[in-house]
Amino acid sequence: THNLPPGLEYLNQLDQIIIHQQVELLEAILGTETSSKYEIKNPLGQRVYFAVEENGCFDRKLCSPIRAFTIRIADNAGREVIRVIRPLRCNSCCFPCFLQQLEVQSPPGTIAGYVVQNWDPFLPKFTIQNESKEDVLKIIGPYATCGCFEDVDFEVKALNEMTTIGKISKYWSGFVNNVFTNTANFGIQVPVDLDVRIKAVLIGACFLIDLMFFENSLDGL
Length: 221
Fold this sequence. Notes:
The chain is α+β, with helices and mostly antiparallel strands and 221 residues long. It has helices spanning 25-30, 57-62, 175-180, 196-213, and strands at residues 16-21, 37-41, 47-54, 69-75, 80-86, 101-105, 111-118, 125-130, 135-140, 152-157, 164-170, 185-189.
């Protein structure tokens, strides 16, 4: 563990990561979009990290699903251990030359890897890359991401797209949450021996998937 980026030793023995978006009272009552905050937990429900999205009110209101953001992820001591950076890019299959990209740093200032959207006319597809921009894994989502009263799974696959090694799941949160708030509950399941840097990149992929497919309050019904 002495070779791991500081703070990522918490991920070393995890094969499941839970990401829970915290409900903001103002957003729940007035429907006002506020800066997202998340708790990142182990399978026992113990908080490992907390995350805060940074951007402007203008970005959240006018550019909502495609907005640029920086998400700072800190451990329980308040030390920032992961930084997720998303530039403002297109969110349409009509512009395949300008699709989504995400940069994940750990520690902040040091590249851990990237999430790159791949063009596909039918399925959500992404490539996970390491710090050298070498392809490591694929993520393939379902044809329909609305998920009628059930979980929605994005499969984590080997580069040949034949072998599934894990998944990112959007958990069904119930009628009240899905109608009145944008609250999201995700789970990441991967092999325990997966490189912790790639686990950190998959956390970033989870945030990207949330905004791209589940940002609207009626998603999940």
